[in-house]
Amino acid sequence: MSAVRTLLGQRVRRDWRQLLLWTIGTALLAYLAYVGVAQSYGTEQDRAALLATVIANPVILLFRGLPSGADQGAFMLFLIFPWLAFLAALMSTFLAVRHTRMDEELGRTELVAATPAGRITPLVATIVHGLIANAVLAGLTILALLGTGAGSQGAVLSGLAVGAVGVTFLGVGLVAGQLMRTSRGANSLAVWVVLVTFLFSGIGNAAGTPSADLQRMESSWLTWLSPFGWGENVRPYADDNPWPIVLCLVAGAVLVAVALALQSVRDLDQSFIAERRGRADATRSLRSPTALVWRLTAGALVGWAIGGLLTGMLSTSLASVVDSISADNPAVDQILTAMGGSTDLARATVSIFFVLLGVLAACWAVQIISRARQEEVAGTAEPLLSTPIGRVRWLGDYLIVGIIGIVVVVAAAAAGAALGIASRGGDWALMQDVAVVGGGQAVAASVFLVLTALVFVLAPRATIAVGWGLVAIATIVGLFGPLFGFPTWLVDIAPIAVTPQVVAGGIDLRGLGWLVAIAVAGAAASLALMRRRELAPAG
Question: Which of 56, 109, 213, 452 is 20–30 Å from 203 (CA)?
Answer without folding.
Answer: 213
